[in-house]
Amino acid sequence: MHLGLGAFHRSHQAWYTQHASDAAEWGIAAFTGRRPDAATALSTQDCLYTLVERSAGGDSFEVIGSIVEAVDGANVDRLCELIAANETAVVMLTITEAAYGLAADGTFDADSPAAADDLRALSAIAAGGTGAPGSPLGRLVLALAGRRDSGGGPLAVVSCDNLSANGDVARRAVLGLAAALGTGLGEWIGANVSFVSTSVDRITPRTTAEDIEEVAEQCGYSDSSPVVAEPFRNWVLSGDFPAGRPRWEEAGAVVVDDIEPYENRKLWLLNGSHSILAYAGQLRGHSTVAQALADPVCRKAVEDFWDEAANHLNADGLAIPQYRQALLERFGNARIAHRLAQIAADGTTKLRMRAVPVLMAERAAGCTGAGSALMLAAWIDYVATSQDFQDPLASEIQAANTLEGGERVRALLRLVSASIGNDAAIVDLVQGLCGSLTANKAAAAVPTRP
């Protein structure tokens, strides 16, 4: 099972499943998130689609068939039916960081609007009523209740979102919701469901009309739902699979006991620099990762942040210099049009994991943390100028933007993390960096080929 049928899932977990040595024994039933469109389009072509691997040297094409059923996420009855089935062994999640809905301190927040709505719906269903939870985690909790009631065995929940210790995050969110329901479901989940942490990596931009046309021209068939990705891919997993899993490691996945160093390397170096480029790049007039990286001001901001993050990535085998060089080559691949506006969404959630840990570690070591603080300053400048930013705390950001000077900076930082928003020295540091990226915008703008 997979919750969050999007381009990344189809370029990553679905690819690994197709390339596992026992692929013929497995199939993925994938459910959409907010809209049914992806499921509708895939279902009309028997869930087959083309994966376009795009490198500087050209494109290659592969038909992926590991998804065997694509379903509208609102079809909760089908979700419950499939998760209750004994044949279901794994439930994977790519629901975005914000969808886990935990409070800033990482605890379950039963009073958040999404959790409160889910609890009302789950309580009504438990009492014999009708309805359905609105969030993916609420739907998962309902489906797990059905598995318990049908006598189903244990299974694994595998988070593939960009969160540190994402398996633990998923556990806290699911168990928090189940425990708040108060029907004994939390105890059953605790005893029968494992939560696996992963680190995932493959740049997958949104598919364009030009991509669809290219597949038709090069492959000789019509595909409404191709996916474009870079050749690079990486998947690190840590946790138990009580009902089994595909042999993903034979397709190149890595199974480890301690995933934290790999998570931090990816969250800080790749995702952190993506955030810098997303905010700084758009402030400076760029629209893609490759364009932003070609701007010396953005490139320096990335390198400075990487220097800070590398101070706290000391585990054996991480090969940080080589990883950084590989990122520069991947980001510079102008044939992958990774849109900065896509990366910029959900800043309060993402920055909490990408900027704050490095900033706090640097300051604890007696350093300023200016590279990390610049990421926060770029976001603050971005939400002041963007008219259509997406964020789970959008209304709170808009309210903070009505303040002035240090009060505005403090209020916005508190939305990311109370610990930094309440630290006067950090507030002063970030405020001093606001506006610095655009001070020489006109002089430093770099022309780039489309």
Brief descriptors of the model:
450 residues, alpha/beta, Rossmann fold, N-(1-d-carboxylethyl)-l-norvaline Dehydrogenase, domain 2, eight-stranded mixed sheet, Fructuronate reductase
Strand order within the widest sheet?
Answer: 5-2-1-6-7-8-10-11
Q: Using only CA atoms, what is the Rg?
A: 22 Å
Whole-number tally of structural domains: 2
Name given to the CATH architecture of the largest domain: 3-Layer(aba) Sandwich
CATH class of the largest domain: Alpha Beta
Biggest beta sheet summary:
8 strands, mixed
Approximate helicity band: 40-55%
The rough form would be described as: globular
Poorly predicted tracts of residues:
442-450
Q: What's the β-strand tally?
A: 11
Average residue-wise pLDDT: 94
* SS summary, helix count: 22
Q: Which structural category fits the helices and strands?
A: alpha/beta
CATH superfamily of the largest domain: NAD(P)-binding Rossmann-like Domain
Fold and architecture overview:
Its EC number is 1.1.1.57. This protein has 450 residues and is an alpha/beta fold. The protein has two domains: 2-255, NAD(P)-binding Rossmann-like Domain (Rossmann fold); 260-444, N-(1-d-carboxylethyl)-l-norvaline Dehydrogenase, domain 2 (Orthogonal Bundle), CATH 1.10.1040.10. It is built from 22 helices and eleven strands. The protein has helices at residues 7-11, 13-19, 37-43, 76-84, 113-126, 136-149, 166-181, 185-192, 209-219, 260-283, 289-293, 296-310, 320-331, 340-343, 347-354, 356-364, 370-385, 394-400, 405-416, 418-421, 424-433, 441-444, and strands at residues 2-3, 28-31, 49-55, 58-64, 67-71, 90-93, 155-159, 193-201, 227-229, 234-238, 254-255. The strands form two sheets. It has an eight-stranded mixed beta sheet with strand order 5-2-1-6-7-8-10-11. A hairpin with a 2-residue loop joins strand 3 (49-55) and strand 4. It is globular, with a radius of gyration of 22 Å. The chain starts with a strand and ends in a 6-residue tail after the last helix.
